[in-house]
Amino acid sequence: MKTILLISPYWQEEHRWMVSSVKMAELWQRLGYRVIVLCMGREDSHKSQVISHKYHVEKISETLEIHRVPDFFIPDPWNYGIAFGFSGAALRLAREMKPDIIVVNKVLFWSSISLLRLRLAGFKVLLLTDALVGITWWPRGTIGKICAAIYANTLGWLILKAATQVVFFHPQPENILKRLSISRKSIVIPTGIDPMRFLQSQVISHTSQCIVTYIGRLESVKGSDDFVEAALKVKKDKPELEVQVVGWYPSTSSGQVRHPLVLAHNHEVRFTGLRKDIPEILAASDIFVLPSYAEGLSNALMEAMSAGCACIASDVGGNRYLIENGVSGFLFPAGDREALASHIRRLVDDPIKRKQLGERARARIEQVFSWEKVGTMYDELFQSWNA
After folding, report:
1. Domain with 227 in it: what CATH number?
2. How far is CA 329 from the centre of its chain?
């Protein structure tokens, strides 16, 4: 059995999930690979073996093992972890495990710096990323944009140049790839999704209730504040609309809410917190909204499309790759609450259109983004990698 060393910012924690890494690891195991994951973060010591004072290992199965290096986490709006010694841990694992393929996921995070160390040591490294931070992906706020631009033109550019090959989850502008001198070594393979987990259960409702849902972390770049304001504007004259926000938000150790959006609107919006029953939540939702200011290839949006929801998303990043505007969903300019409210209002008023968009969204996932198709693309890539 061949082995993949997957280097990821995070794995699965309360508010630090790297969904693309989890999905890729599952898909690659289905293809017959053993996956060793190195990431930042902390794990319950009862589940893991401590390797020195820096390092925890959790064996999930015969084909999946998680190695964690503790980090210092800088919260929103940065959402950035720093783990000293991470690159050294990556090099040690590469030398000890002798993996057939080394993959670094994301060019944004501290963990991606390990790619430089591995390349200097003579290893081939495949870089996966859904966005070019400071070039095609921007945070909210002036300071964040300045920092992103500096990163993009220094360390980020070096990491892209050093990678043996780059896989983007959605297409990037060709002129940018040429400017970065990575056009010839770049390909597109979406993360994709297993649509069988999300049955197309949307039907024309015979009741007056309509549920509009946002799923994701309550972080500034995700635009959850825009969703709440736009949806509540519609709810003023459409009282049958139920507004729902699903995702992690900070609270005190005693359970007291700390997030200002929740504090301001918890009497008129259902804030569920972190949930694990996402297929059931989507099956009960009529409309799904993703209002991000910057986005890669959103797993939440793919799940909503797979579930047959009528989807509305900001016209950024991978959203415009997933949704054909007016055909399999609606796109709107990021930050335009009036446009978002208009789309929500139209879909509340038109259950036939909701059903039509949901059916076409599901069909698009099956035709382009299903794991059957994505798995074939990765299998071909890995075969050529070892040729």
Report:
1. 3.40.50.2000
2. 19
What pLDDT is attached to residue 131? 84
**b/e map of 113-134 (b: 16 or more CB within 10 Å)?**
bbbbbbbeeebebbbbbbbbbb
Mark whether 32 and 145 lie in a shared domain. yes
User: Which residues span the domain enclosing 304?
Assistant: 195-369
| Domain identity same for 127 and 65 | yes
Cα distance between residue 95 and residue 137, in whole Å: 34
- How many other C-beta atoms are found inside a 10 Å radius of the C-beta of residue 244? 18
CA angle 29, 127, 194 (to 5 degrees): 35
pTM of the model: 0.88
Cis preceding linkage at 195, omega within 30: no
C-alpha separations of 154 from 7, 148, 159, 180, 212 in Å: 21, 10, 9, 11, 41
Torsional class of 254: left (φ above 0), alpha (ψ -120 to 50), beta (otherwise): alpha
Write out pLDDT tens, residues 148-195: 899 888 999 999 999 999 999 999 999 999 999 999 999 999 999 988
Same domain, 210 and 359: yes
Residue 204 has pLDDT above 90, yes or no: no
Q: What angle do CA 296, 234, 268 make, to 5 degrees?
A: 90
Q: How many domains are there within the chain? A: 2
* Tens of pLDDT, residues 318-354: 999 999 999 999 999 999 999 999 999 999 999 999 9
Alpha carbon 36 to chain centroid distance?
A: 20
In angstroms, the CA 163 to CA 10 distance is: 20
- pLDDT of the residue at 15: 54
Both 161 and 232 in one domain: the answer is no
What pLDDT shows up at residue 349? 95
